[in-house]
Amino acid sequence: MRARKKEYLEAKIEELETNSKIKNIGDLYKGDLVTDSHSILARWTNHFFQLFNVSDVRQTEKHTAEPPVPEPGAFEVETAIEKPKRHKSPGTDQIPAELMKAGD
After folding, report:
1. In a domain, 30, yes or no
2. Could you read off the pLDDT of 27-54 as tens digits, one per residue?
């Protein structure tokens, strides 16, 4: 099986090289053009099924290392806004503490 796959790939590469050398762009990029959304979705689904070797996405279980974090309450948000000190450099979000505190 590996030998046949290798032969197939070598033949395809040779065909691509030949088409590239003779500037045969039409054959170089030939393939099935999918234009409608249903066919595009089906092709991507098939691609990822093959890529991840999954028989059916609905059958796979979702495992997480940690339980989901609950949404913060109003009190927690207010506390977090009041916590930063004024006149300090902003964090990675580039929002100064003065702007957050003035936003109420």
Report:
1. yes
2. 666 666 677 888 888 888 888 888 887 6
66 found inside a domain: no
Residue appearing with tokens 């030949």: 18
| DSSP tally for the chain: helices H, then strands E | 5, 0
* Total number of domains constituting the chain: 2
- Cβ neighbourhood burial of 82 (10 Å; 0-12, 13-18, 19+): exposed
Host domain of residue 53: 2-57
Total residues belonging to the chain: 104
| Residue 27 CA, distance from chain mean position | 30
Could you tell me the pTM of the whole model? 0.32
Cβ atoms of 84 and 100 closer than 8 Å: yes
Interior/surface letters 35-60, b for 16+ CB within 10 angstroms, e for the rest: eeeeeeeeeeeeeeeeeeeeeeeeee
